[in-house]
């Protein structure tokens, strides 16, 4: 349209930048889709359109988190149990359309897995079907391995990234300096996730990983699952952050 009205004016190339935080929602969708494919390969069929791991995370948050399932949830009893054991509940309110909700939810599930099993098995009389389902999933190695893998991704990738997006010192047009290391690490981990299975180094030195020993306790996360997750994240980075490189930043400024 500009060419039609101003044929003699040279119009610079326009570059469109995604809202960077939306890449986290892209991570959620891509990861869940690929985990559903793993479920199908294992013969696990769900009546709802989400993977078994995502379903378990959501249900734990609905049962024990704030603003959850009022009919089946046991929030008040859970908080009383936490007080009895001198602990604080970290379980979040689950909303699928919130940035980083899936991954931070996975961390809280791993952190409270043993507490949940003890609470339901020892303190709940006649648990409802939703509670029974959660207990079954948390006792299943396949499910807990996937949830643990999602929690590791949270601690290593999405939580630091969310901190960067919320930082008041990082300008939107300077985010590319974090995206390139992210892309490089995901490319490596998508073919060899061994470093992620112990205690991986921080991708972003000024936004380090938290110390969370529970992520690496018990059964080691499946190498193949972590590689699939990293490959999923890498696909989203390539698709949604292609306009965030330093050269695009220079061109954007030149066009203003």
Key terms for this structure?
single chain, 256 residues, mainly alpha, 57% helix, 0% strand, disordered C terminus
Structural account:
It is a single chain. With about 260 residues, this protein is mainly α. It is globular and about 80 Å long. The longest helix has 25 residues, at about 140-165. The protein has helices at about 1-5, 20-40, 50-65, 75-85, 100-125, 130-140, 140-165, 175-190, 225-240, 245-255. It has one domain. It is built from ten helices and no strands. Residues about 15 and about 250-255 have low confidence and may be disordered. Helices cover about 55% and strands about 0% of the residues.
Summarize the structure.
The chain has helices at residues 2-5, 22-41, 52-64, 75-84, 101-123, 129-138, 141-165, 176-189, 223-240, 246-254. It is mostly helical. The chain has one domain.
């Amino acid at each position: 349209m500009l060419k039609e009205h101003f044929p003699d004016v040279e119009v610079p190339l326009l570059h469109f930048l995604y809202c960077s935080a939306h890449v986290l929602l892209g991570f959620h969708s891509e990861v869940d889709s690929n985990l559903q494919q793993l479920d199908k390969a294992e013969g696990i069929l769900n009546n709802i359109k989400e993977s078994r791991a995502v379903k378990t995370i959501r249900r734990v948050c609905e049962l024990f988190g704030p603003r959850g399932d009022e009919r089946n949830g046991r929030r008040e009893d859970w908080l009383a149990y936490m007080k009895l054991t001198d602990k604080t509940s970290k379980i979040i309110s689950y909303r699928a359309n919130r940035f980083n909700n899936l991954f931070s939810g996975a961390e809280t599930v791993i952190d409270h897995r043993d507490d949940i099993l003890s609470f339901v098995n020892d303190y709940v009389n006649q648990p409802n079907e939703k509670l029974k389902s959660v207990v079954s999933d948390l006792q299943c190695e396949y499910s807990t391995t996937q949830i643990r893998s999602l929690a590791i991704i949270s601690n290593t990738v999405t939580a630091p990234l969310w901190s960067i997006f919320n930082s008041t010192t990082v300008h939107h047009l300077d985010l590319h300096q974090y995206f390139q290391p992210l892309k490089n690490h995901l490319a490596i981990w998508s073919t060899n996730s061994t470093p992620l299975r112990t205690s991986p180094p921080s991708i972003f030195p000024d936004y380090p990983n938290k110390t969370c020993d529970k992520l690496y306790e018990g059964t080691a996360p499946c190498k193949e699952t972590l590689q699939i997750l990293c490959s999923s994240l890498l696909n989203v980075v390539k698709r949604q952050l292609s306009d965030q490189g330093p050269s695009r930043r220079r061109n954007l400024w030149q066009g203003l």
